[in-house]
Sequence to fold (403 residues):
Amino acid sequence: MKFGKERIYTIPHPAINTIGTLADRLQTEAQASGKILAPKVRMHVGEPDFSTPAHIRQAAIESLSNERQTYGPAAGQPWLRELLAAKVQRVDGYTVAPENISIATGGTSAILASILATVNPGEEILYPDPGWPYYAIQLKISGATGVPYPLDPKNDWLPDLEQLEKLVTPQTRMLIINSPANPTGAVFPRQLVADLLDFARRHDLYLLSDECYDQILFEGEHVSPATMISREELESGRFIGIYTFSKTYSMTGWRIGYVVTGKSLLKTIIHVLNMSFTNLNNAVQRAAATALTGPQDCVQEMNEAYRRRRDLVVNLLKDAGRYLYMPHGAFYALIDIRDKEGHDRDVQQFALDLVSEYNTTVTPGTDFGSVAKNFVRISLATADDQLALGVRAICDFADQYKY
Fold:
């Protein structure tokens, strides 16, 4: 039997998929049998619960009605790249030309293309633990060797430079950082960003900065490493910035992100993008352009909702004696589900049992690495009443759970 590359075939499915499938099956079976379940609460998926704003959707409709949807440049339409350069300066605080930017099919594609364009099979990439699950999967697909660097909740889930120094080898080629962070909600202070940039310089590493949540911030400031480098260093390809419309404008299914780096490196990345998806359709690019140029009230309104929900969750955790830290950005929180004596639990089984007992979904911390093995992640992109029900269910279940 042929099944392709073993390193890809043997990648396990993230538990988040199993949890969602189980929840849907139990819901369907209950409806068919007339069984009454607990109120449905879904907190496992990191996706805004808001509709894409109407003016953005309308721009796509008008494009479909009035424009031919033909092949276009793999890097994206020039008019959108110009708008993105202005956005990067306005929001992220550094200056680039449109020629430093390429469109991709979501931040996911932008990250994978960047890895494929820079790191050879067997070379090493430092990535956060806990971190976005697809980092580890994309490294396996590319053939690179992933080296997780641990984040400590007692240090607000921030990287530790001493730990990073211990992990560097002659084969290390890239450092991945993520702020505001998924799944922790950590926001890196300015000095830490400067230290991480210096670390990359000392070891001559690519610094891939995943800034997909750059506009979802509750406290502090979003600091891109690109604000601390010269134009010459940007053009050298040291910095690779990853961005997306998915979170800021609730456009997850539209699949549009972008990558920012030096022109020479971007040429290599564009080759990868071109050979994988050729180009993104004009309708989505018109919608993205309207997102950038249209009213920004929707961004503020969504952020205010996420902040309110963050505060709700934190207060509930404090009341339950399970508060551990304050998420400062993105829209997630990790909840420690150990018993009162601090004993470890099987967090995947806990998540499965929580669905069966409470009709409530969370993502097991093991999806994000080994450090979060006693945590579950919840998404704050969930209605307030559902969050309240769900967090109480997690805390109640954790207090009585036997496994």
In short: The longest strand covers residues 172-178. The mean pLDDT is 96. The chain has two domains: 6-51+298-400, 54-293. The chain is about 45% helix and 15% strand.
